[in-house]
Amino acid sequence: MHQLSREEKQAGWKLLFNGKNLEGWTTLTGQAVPKKMWQVKKGLLTVLPGHHQGCDIISQDEFLNFELNLEVLLTKGANSGLKYFIQPACSVGFEFQILDDINHPDAKEGIDGNRKFGSLYDLLPARNTAAKPIGEWNQLRLVVRGEHIEHWLNGSKVLEFDRSSERFWSAYKTSKFNSMKDFGTYQKGHLLLQDHGRSVSFRNIKIRPL
Known about the structure:
This protein is mainly β.
C-alpha cells in the first residue's frame, strides 16, 4: 500500500497520498488541513464525522489529461465525492459522486439517478454500478482525455461522455450548475475530496498523465 511498482513508475504513475501525512493537499484557500476534520492514520486518509462545517481538501497540483485511481471506504449513510477541474478557492466542479445509495436520501434526488454512486453529480447517471457493501473498499478510476471522460467503479466502466456533446450540455441546462457560465469549460484544475460530515476513508490515490 502507498508504494508504486517499478512498472507503475515506468508508466508515469505518481502517488497523491503518501499514507503518512497530507503532503500535497490543502484546504480550498491554501491553508493547512485541520486535524479535527481530516485524519491520517494507519495509511488511511479519513474524513472525521461530527462537525457541521465541512472542509473539502484539494490537491496542490493541477491536472490536465490524466488517469486517476483510488480506493474509498464508506460508512452507513455517507456522502462524499471526487471532484475535478477545480479552480482556486472554488468547490464547484465535475464530481464523481461517492454515496451510500441505500441509506442516503440524495440517491433518490436528481434526474434518472444522476446523484447515485459513480454518476457525474446532478448531470449524467452512472449505469450498471456494482458498489461494494458498506465496510468494503470500492475502487474508483477516472480518465480524462480532453473532452472525453470516463468513470469506472470496481473495474467496470459506469459512465462515458464527451463534454462537447449535446448530451452533456442538455444535462447542464437542467442541472443546479446552469447559472455558472464557465462550468464545463475548464481544461485543467485541482482534484478535490469532499467532506460532507460523515466518515469516509481513502487510500491508494495515484495518478498518471495521459
